[in-house]
Amino acid sequence: xxxxxxxxxxxxxxxxxxxxxxxxxxxKTGRRITxxxxxxxxxxxxxxxxxxxxxHGIGCPLKNITVFAAISRYIESREDIIATSTLRGxxxxxxxxxxxxxxxxxxxxxxxxxxxxxxxxxxxxxxSRATIxxxxxxxxxxLLLMDIxxxxxxxxxxxxxxxxxxxxxxxxxxxxxIKDTEFEIPALLAIWCSLRVSEVRGLQYCDISKDGKHIxxxxxxxxxxxxxxxxxxxxxxxxxxxxxxPKYLLELIMAQPHKSDEDFIVDKTYNQVSQxxxxxxxxxxxxxxxxxLRHLFASTANDLGVADxxxxxxxxxxxNNILKTIYTHTSHEKEDEFQNIIDGFFLxxxxxxxxxxxxx
Length: 360
Prior knowledge:
Layout: E1 10-11, E2 17-25, E3 32-39, H1 42-56, H2 67-78, H3 84-96, H4 111-123, H5 129-145, H6 152-155, H7 171-178, H8 184-191, H9 197-202, E4 214-217, E5 220-224, E6 227-231, E7 241-244, H10 247-254, H11 270-283, H12 292-303, H13 308-315, H14 332-354
Antiparallel strand pairs: 1-2, 2-3, 4-7, 5-6
């Protein structure tokens, strides 16, 4: 069988040379998916095309693909099972973190290279400790997909966390600030029910149970590249959850004008919910972001003596990097007890903000 000739770069009317690379084939049409490389000379176009194929692992044996290509393959393998925002975060890390090792082939990668890459990110002050840890986790998962286990999270040293943490306002001050404002419903969903901003914006009236006692978090509305994307997938598997809806919050939600069960409960843009909240709180002399409302929920619930397992369940946290690893389950009776503690606390603050007596 005659060997297939490699296509040489073609010369464009501009005088430059273009080399096409076959990335694969469309599953539906069978047509080639190509990438064009353009350069001033024919030789330069060939070299650039070869470098691109090597970096992205096109036509290479697994052991010869680069770190960048391995991460690309891992991301592609997860596209249909994780949230869009998580995929976007993976791609951001791939292009911004641990850059000194991205062009190293897997069979040449060693622990020293990874440690040096992490140290460089620290030295250049490009990333926080958490970002470096997430990037190492992504790399470790990508290598595992290629049957390479370097135990990176245990063997790579990253700087110790800073001792100081951002000082959050008192919960009572936050409740008093948001009471009877446009931020009350979204903020209470975050600080009382522990929802992320994308989950707050993704809630619809149909997510409220018929008896009004519970609300189900089953979708997100994410702001990316200047527009909103509604996804029927939350951040993690555990983020899909049903939580108890406090009666006070239910009444606020149902008092809003809405035409159907498909209407969004918080029908506001990302900036209206998140950025405007931060600016509003700053004007109240309270330094706080919308996301930190979830932090305040977790620390408040902990101070109230609520078990970690219930805090984790209510907030939809799946990683022990955020909360302690939990291997036990609470009973429904215990969950009701913990929820009553949380509800009583927040309702008391709301009544205090109203200048009324607390009713449980």
